[in-house]
Specification:
Elements (H helix, E strand, L loop, with lengths): L3 E6 L11 H20 L3 E6 L2 H10 L13 H26 L6 E3 L3 E3 L12 E7 L1 H11 L3 E3 L5 E5 L6 E2 L2 H9 L3 E3 L6 E6 L2 E4 L6 H11 L4 E6 L5 E2 L7 E2 L2 E3 H9 L8 H14 L4 E6 L3 H5 L5 E4 L2
Parallel strand pairs: 1-2, 1-12, 2-9, 3-9, 4-10, 12-16, 15-17
Antiparallel strand pairs: 4-8, 5-7, 6-7, 10-11, 13-14, 16-17
Helix pairs in contact: 1-3, 2-3, 6-8, 7-8
The structure holds adenosine-5'-diphosphate and phosphoric acid mono(formamide)ester.
Family: Belongs to the carbamate kinase family.
Organism: Suicoccus acidiformans
GO molecular function: carbamate kinase activity
Length: 313
C-alpha cells in the first residue's frame, strides 16, 4: 500500500570526505540509489535535508566579500542558497535513478520558508552548530577575530553556533501538499527552511538556522505523512550509547523515549533533536510512526527489517 514518507537526510547523506560540489553530488548519487527502492514500492517521498556544514562554509566564504560591490549575504539568504545548491544536486540525482529505473515521476526542489516566533528565546541562546569542526585553539582564535560563539559539538570538535528557533509553520506547506497529491517527489524545507517572521509587510528573513529534524517533523505533520524517516549515521538509537552496556532501541513508545530523555540518554545537538522531533510528529499524528535509522538500512527496514521505530502505543 502506498505510504506518504517524509525522508529527512542527515549530514552523511550529503557530505562525506569531499566538500567540493562534485564530492557532495557524488554523495547524493549514493543517497538517491538508497531511496529508489521506496519509489519502486509506490511510496510518495517528501524529501528534506540538513545544511549545517554547507551553510557554515558559505558564511566563511562571505568573509571574502567587500562592503559595496560584492556585499556579504545575511544568514537567511545563505540558508536559501544552500537549499538551492543541495536541492539542485539531489534533484538531478533523483531524476537519474528514476530514469534508470524506468519510472515516470517528476522531482522538484522548492525554496521553502519556515515561520518562526520573533520572541523565541533561541535568538538569545545560540545552540545550532554550523560549518567546519575546529580544534579548541582554532576556535579560540576564530572567536577572538569575529566575535562569533564556538562550542564543543558532541565530542567531534568545536563549531560556530547560531540561533535555532523552533519551526511554527511552513509557508509553502499547501503548495508542497498539492505537489505530493499529484505524485511529484518534492525536496523542501532544506536546511530546516529559511527562517522568516510574519510582519505587517509580509514575511521577513531572520538570521538563524532551524534544525532540519524539527522542520521535517512539522512538514510531516502538515502533509499528513504516514512516516517520518530520519536518516543518520547509525542503524538504531541506543541507550548508554558507546558504553559497554549500550542497548539498541527497536520498537519504542513515546512514553519510553520521554523517560530516556529525562535520563539524558541522547546527546544534545546530535541524537536528542531527532528523538524530540520524532516524538513531536507522532504525538501530533496519532496513527503515524517515526523511524530513526541509517540510509544503508532503509531498504532492509521497509522489507521487514529492524530500525528504531517510535509510536504512540
Ligand atoms: N544515543 C545515541 N544513539 C545513537 N547515536 C547517537 C546517540 N547519541 C549520539 N549519537 C550520534 O549522533 C549521530 C547523529 O547526529 P548527527 O551526526 O549530528 O546528525 P545528522 O545525521 O543529522 O547530521 C549518530 O550518527 C551517532 O554517532
Ligand atoms: N539545518 C540543519 O539542521 O542542518 P544539519 O542537520 O546539517 O545540522
Amino acid at each position: 500500500m502506498t505510504k506518504r514518507i517524509v525522508v529527512a537526510l542527515g549530514g552523511n547523506a550529503i557530505l562525506t570526505d569531499d566538500p567540493s560540489a562534485r564530492g557532495q553530488q557524488e554523495a547524493l548519487r549514493q543517497t538517491a540509489k538508497h531511496l529508489i527502492d521506496l519509489i519502486k514500492q509506490g511510496h510518495q517521498l517528501i524529501i528534506s535535508h540538513g545544511n549545517g556544514p554547507q551553510v557554515g562554509n558559505l558564511l566563511l566564504q562571505q568573509i571574502a566579500a567587500d562592503s559595496e560591490k560584492n556585499p556579504a549575504m545575511p544568514l537567511d539568504t545563505c540558508v536559501a542558497m544552500t537549499q538551492g545548491s543541495i536541492g539542485y544536486w539531489l534533484q538531478q540525482e533523483m531524476q537519474r535513478v528514476i530514469r534508470e529505473a524506468d519510472i515516470d515521476k517528476s522531482v522538484v526542489s522548492l525554496v521553502t520558508q519556515v515561520l518562526v516566533d520573533a520572541q523565541d528565546p533561541a535568538f538569545e541562546n545560540l545552540t545550532k552548530p554550523v560549518g567546519p569542526f575546529l580544534s579548541a585553539e582554532e576556535a579560540k582564535v576564530a572567536s577572538a577575530e569575529t566575535g562569533d560563539t564556538y562550542v564543543e559539538d558532541a565530542g567531534r570538535g568545536y563549531r560556530k553556533v547560531v540561533a535555532s528557533p523552533k519551526p511554527v509553520d511552513i509557508v509553502e506547506a499547501n503548495a508542497i501538499k498539492t505537489l505530493v497529491d499529484q505524485d511529484v517527489i518534492t525536496i523542501s524545507a532544506g536546511g530546516g527552511g529559511v527562517p522568516v517572521i510574519s510582519t505587517d509587510n509580509g514575511y521577513e528573513g531572520v538570521e538563524a538556522v532551524i534544525d532540519k529534524d524539527f522542520a521535517s517533523a512539522k512538514l510531516a505533520e502538515l502533509v499528513g505523512a504516514d512516516y517520518l524517516l530520519i536518516l543518520t549515521g547509525v542503524d538504531n538509537v541506543y541507550v548508554n550509547f558507546n558504553q559497554p552496556n549500550q542497548e539498541k532501541l527497536e520498537d519504542v513508545t513515546v512514553e519510553q523515549m520521554k523517560a530516556w530523555i529525562a535520563e539524558n540518554q541522547f546527546a544534545p545537538g546530535s541524537m536528542l533533536p531527532k528523538v524530540e522531533a520524532a516524538i513531536e510528529f507522532v504525538e501530533n499524528t496519532p496513527d503515524a510512526q517515526a523511524v530513526i535509522t541509517s540510509l544503508e538500512n532503509v531498504e532492509a527496514y521497509f522489507n521487514g527489517g529492524s530500525a528504531t521505530v517510535i509510536r504512540n502505543v
